[in-house]
């Protein structure tokens, strides 16, 4: 049994698909299938059942998955210790960030860190807040940066300066002539919103509750998983949206979007890390460089 076989097994178990796992690992499908077949043949067990075009873990596979993850995590921790001994001349960090943070908050800070530590490779994955928290929880990311609150007792959550949510409309919307709206007007227009699980949507739902408005009271026409897609859709449509002021600052300046004021709270960002995982020197250096 090799670490590479374990990594392949974990990827196939998480993707429940050999081809997708192979793509994630940058391997061929045949190499991925062979690694699983070798494990099953070596121990005379069956790790997956083939169901239609997909695969699912057997009970044996489910029992083995936790052990495989633990071994790979320990190997990663050992490699990080060795990287520490190199005095931050080499190493790697895996970061995960929700979209607003990844696109508008993180890039400048990453560039500052790269200049200070050119030998540390940074790998960034994006997702919504729930997806980022899950990546940190299972060790696929060393640190997570999100705009939504996370309730996971295994994660430490550090509050950071964030952004402000803004209600914006396109130039043809009836609100484009208004500077401010009241909560009772929120139910009188169509809305385009981020998908469930995004920090922006969760924060908006919390604000609605304070206004005495339920999300189900709104006329939601479209849900989109991307800030940029949402911004463009509202610019050329007749709906309102709520979005980070960082995302729409250039559109507001160009006049392709109009902001209407309503009492929405400032929104903090949060840094996530697993409480029980080893914090490498590279990780500590990044946190210091970010001034967190």
From TrEMBL:
Residue ranges annotated for the HTH lysR-type domain, each copy included: 1-58
Superkingdom to which the source organism belongs: Bacteria
Gene3D superfamilies the UniProt entry points to: 3.40.190.290, Winged helix-like DNA-binding domain superfamily/Winged helix DNA-binding domain
UniProt keyword Iron-sulfur present: no
Keywords, sorted A to Z: DNA-binding, Transcription, Transcription regulation
Pfam families for this protein: HTH_1, LysR_substrate
Keyword Transcription regulation on entry: yes
Organism: Bradyrhizobium erythrophlei
InterPro entries, alphabetized: LysR_HTH_N, LysR_subst-bd, WH-like_DNA-bd_sf, WH_DNA-bd_sf
Protein's name according to its UniProt entry: Transcriptional regulator, LysR family
Physiological role: NodD regulates the expression of the nodABCFE genes which encode other nodulation proteins. NodD is also a negative regulator of its own expression. Binds flavonoids as inducers.
Membership in a protein family: Belongs to the LysR transcriptional regulatory family.
UniProt-recorded Gene Ontology molecular function terms: DNA-binding transcription factor activity; transcription cis-regulatory region binding
């Amino acid at each position: 049994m090799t670490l590479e076989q374990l990594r392949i097994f974990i990827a196939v178990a998480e993707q429940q698909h050999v081809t997708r796992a192979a793509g994630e690992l940058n391997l061929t499908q045949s190499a991925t299938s062979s690694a699983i077949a070798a494990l099953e043949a070596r121990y005379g067990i069956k790790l997956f059942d083939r169901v239609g075009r997909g695969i699912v873990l057997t009970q044996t596979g489910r029992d083995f998955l936790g052990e495989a993850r633990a071994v790979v995590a320990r190997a990663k921790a050992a490699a990080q210790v060795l990287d520490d001994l190199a005095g931050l001349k080499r190493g790697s960090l895996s970061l995960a960030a929700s979209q607003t943070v990844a696109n508008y908050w993180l890039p400048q800070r990453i560039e500052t860190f790269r200049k200070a530590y050119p030998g540390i490779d940074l790998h960034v994955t994006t997702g919504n807040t729930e997806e980022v928290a899950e990546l940190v929880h299972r060790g696929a990311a060393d640190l997570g940066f999100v705009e939504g609150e996370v309730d996971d007792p295994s994660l430490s959550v550090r509050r950071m300066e964030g952004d402000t949510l803004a209600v914006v409309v396109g130039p043809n919307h009836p609100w484009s002539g208004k500077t401010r709206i009241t909560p009772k007007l929120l139910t009188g227009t169509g809305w385009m919103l981020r998908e469930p699980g995004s920090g922006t949507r969760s924060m908006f739902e919390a604000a609605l509750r304070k206004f005495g408005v339920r999300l189900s009271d709104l006329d939601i026409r479209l849900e989109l998983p991307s800030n940029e897609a949402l911004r463009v859709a509202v610019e050329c449509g007749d709906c309102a949206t709520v979005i980070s002021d960082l995302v729409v600052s250039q559109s507001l300046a160009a006049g392709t979007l109009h902001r209407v004021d309503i009492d929405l709270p400032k929104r903090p960002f949060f840094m996530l890390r697993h409480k029980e995982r080893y914090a490498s020197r590279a990780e500590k250096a990044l946190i210091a460089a970010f001034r967190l």
